[in-house]
TrEMBL record:
It comes from the Bacteria. Residues 1-382 form the Aminoacyl-transfer RNA synthetases class-II family profile domain. Signal peptide: none annotated. One of its GO terms (cellular component) is cytoplasm. The keyword Ligase applies. Pfam families: HGTP_anticodon (PF03129), tRNA-synt_His (PF13393). Homodimer. Keywords: Aminoacyl-tRNA synthetase, ATP-binding, Cytoplasm, Ligase, Nucleotide-binding, Protein biosynthesis. It is an enzyme of class 6 (ligase). One of its GO terms (molecular function) is histidine-tRNA ligase activity. Its main location: cytoplasm. Its EC number is 6.1.1.21. This is Histidine--tRNA ligase.
Length: 496
């Protein structure tokens, strides 16, 4: 009787899912430092922190993502045991609307909050585009005044400069959905369906990516994308496409000139005129605070893809060029955006609750700073205390404890202590500034060796002989009692 051949158990493949990635020590540290800086500015402007659930009901999140053709309409969703649908949040704004509606009787009005955390989108991943990314938001809920919008734009400019984006390397561009709605009223009449309006919004939001001709094609018959696939257009007439393109190009040489151009575009539309008036107020208030058009500018080409915006929208764009993976120069583009969403809370309460806010894409901002060489490639590691004698681990732990008590980041080598070379290699891998060594002779003499690994690496390239190596100042014997003071001095020298 033939034996049945049993299959070997399949081991799971160690790989991140498509569109996701892992982040390690220095990357996580840089992000934490940036978040600390950003939230410090938010706090200075009077915003309070809020931490809400990463999971919401699909009903609470709503359907506002621009990529509505994707499965689950852009979100990661699943059906719970009670058959209700749950989803990972796709941004931090929709959850805020639920939180405010739920707790509005206990919260001050206006309510100013900031929030930080990962969000998830079930979108097609691409180079530099992941399905999980960090956002850092600030929002004001409960006030209709555009002073709140002007404040958000000013705060966004302050944040960019605080994290290292120089003035002149960014611009905060502002527009108003009401102006675009006025334009569409003039073009299609007030009876135009939401589907057509949303289609125009999604198309003009691609202006930065596909340019004037690309938008014109998508408003009309359609176009082929980079892969050769044909994208159906909206089927508008040439005249209708011309009017929309003229609106996108209505930015003048000054904010006042742009405002004048927009008044002509909206004509007799009441909502369009309201939108232009709001833009004029935002520009005046920004200038009054010292934020001129070199930092905050009215720009009709800003639309923002999310469907819940109802008034002013804004976007922070980095204006410098970087080199892509193929060595081609390109603009870095947007790192933050937001706007007014007066109807989002109304979905829960039935009453209009005006709100406005901004979201900063933290990972994109970090990538921009790295591209400009404004972040350190490697974070400094801890001081490593090596183990020369495995019977004296308690002594080495005492040294680590003294360093930590003095505020010095330090660790004991916990690998196999047989090989000192391996221990020093480990210290190098950890980017340790200093290694501490004490053998039997040093113990008997009340001494300890400390090795300046940062200086040693710099000197090593120029050392030719053994005598030069012994004479180099990167390693010294010190009194055991001076361990903390001497290690501190070495770290200060490495950081100088």
């Amino acid at each position: 009787m033939a034996k049945t051949k049993q299959k070997k158990p399949q081991r799971p493949r160690a790989a991140t899912p498509r569109g996701f990635r892992d982040y390690f020590g220095a990357e996580v540290t840089r992000r934490a430092d940036m978040l600390r800086t950003i939230t410090g500015i938010y706090h200075q402007y009077g915003f309070d922190p809020l931490e809400s659930s990463a999971v919401e009901t699909v009903e609470a999140l709503g359907k506002f993502l621009p990529d509505v053709d994707r499965p689950n309409e852009g979100v990661f969703a699943w059906q719970d045991e009670d058959e209700s649908w749950m989803a990972l949040r796709y941004d931090l704004t929709a959850p805020l609307a639920r939180v405010y509606a739920q707790h509005r009787n206990d919260l001050p009005t206006p309510y100013r909050r900031y929030a930080v955390g990962p969000v998830w989108r079930n979108e097609k991943p691409g180079p530099g585009r992941f399905r999980q990314f960090y956002q850092c938001d600030a929002d004001t809920v409960g006030t209709p005044t555009v002073a709140a919008d002007a404040e958000i734009c000013a705060m966004l400019a302050d944040v960019l400069e605080a994290v290292g984006i120089a003035r002149g390397d960014y611009i905060v561009r502002v527009n108003n959905r009401k102006v675009l709605n006025g334009l569409l009223d003039n073009l299609f009449g007030s009876e135009a369906g939401e589907g057509l309006r949303d289609g125009v919004l999604r198309t003009v939001d691609k202006f930065d990516k596909v340019g004037e001709q690309g938008v014109r094609d998508l408003l009309g018959p359609g176009r082929k994308d980079a892969s050769g696939a044909f994208i159906d257009g909206l089927g508008l007439s040439s005249h209708q496409a011309d009017v929309i393109i003229s609106f996108l190009l209505a930015r003048g040489e000054s904010n006042a000139a742009t405002i004048s151009n927009l008044r002509e575009v909206v004509g007799t539309s009441g909502i369009g005129a309201d939108g232009v008036s709001e833009l004029e107020q935002i520009a005046e208030m920004a200038e009054a605070q010292g934020y001129g058009p070199d930092r905050i500018v009215i720009d009709p080409s800003v639309v923002r893809g999310l469907g819940y915006y109802t008034g002013p929208v804004y976007e922070a764009e980095l204006t410098f060029e970087i080199t892509d993976e193929k060595g081609r120069p390109r603009q870095f583009g947007s790192v933050a955006g937001g706007g007014r969403y007066d109807d989002l809370v109304k979905r829960f309460t039935g009453q209009e609750v005006p709100a406005t806010g901004v979201s900063i894409g933290v990972d994109r901002l970090l990538a921009a700073l790295e591209a400009k060489g404004r972040t350190s490639a490697e974070a400094q590691g801890p001081v490593v205390v090596t183990v020369m004698d495995r019977d004296r681990v308690a002594d080495y732990q005492q040294m680590v404890g003294e360093l930590r008590a003095a505020g010095v980041r330090a660790e004991l080598y916990l690998g196999n202590p047989k090989d000192m070379g391996r221990q020093l290699k480990y210290a190098d891998q950890r980017n340790a500034p200093v290694a501490v060594i004490q053998g039997g002779d040093e113990l008997a003499a009340g001494k300890v060796q400390i090795k300046d690994l940062a200086l040693g690496a710099r000197l090593a390239a120029d050392i030719q002989t053994n005598e030069e190596w012994k004479a180099q100042p990167a390693q010294m014997e010190i009194e055991r009692a001076d361990l903390v003071a001497q290690v501190r001095a070495m770290i200060q020298r490495a950081n100088a």
